[in-house]
Write a structure and sequence with these properties.
Oligomer: single chain
Number of strands: 4
Radius of gyration: 15 Å
Number of helices: 4
Distance between the termini: 24 Å
Strand content: 15-25%
Strand order of the largest sheet: 1-4
Shape: globular
Helix content: 10-25%
Largest sheet: 2 strands, antiparallel
C-alpha cells in the first residue's frame, strides 16, 4: 500500500478523480534530477512536459508509467479523503504547506 498526497489544484487530481488505476514512478538517486524538477514546476495543462523531458510512456495492463524509472508501482485507489486543517497535530504545517 502506498500513500499519495496530491493538492486539489494539481492537474494530477483530474486524472485521479476518474478513479482509474495509476502508477508511481521512482528514479534512482541523482538520476534525471533536472527533468524531474522541471516536471514539478510546470503543469501538464500548459504543455507535454513528459515529451519535453524525453521520458517514454509505456503501459502495463493499460496503466501508463515512465519507462526510465528504476521502480514503478502499479496502483489502484483504495481510499480518498480531503485533508482537514483541524486534523494536523502541528498547526505550523498548515501555514508552511
Amino acid at each position: 500500500v502506498a500513500l499519495a498526497v496530491v493538492r486539489p489544484q494539481r492537474y494530477t487530481m483530474e486524472f485521479l478523480a476518474q478513479r482509474q488505476p495509476f502508477s508511481l514512478s521512482f528514479f534512482r538517486e541523482n538520476e534525471r534530477r533536472e527533468e524531474l524538477a522541471y516536471c514539478g514546476r510546470v503543469s501538464g495543462r500548459q504543455e507535454d512536459k513528459i515529451a519535453r523531458c524525453g521520458f517514454t510512456v509505456e503501459h502495463e495492463g493499460g496503466i501508463p508509467y515512465l519507462a526510465e524509472a528504476g521502480l514503478v508501482l502499479l496502483c489502484r485507489q483504495l481510499y480518498v479523503q480531503d485533508m482537514k486543517e483541524e486534523c494536523f497535530l502541528d498547526p505550523a504545517l498548515v501555514e508552511r504547506f
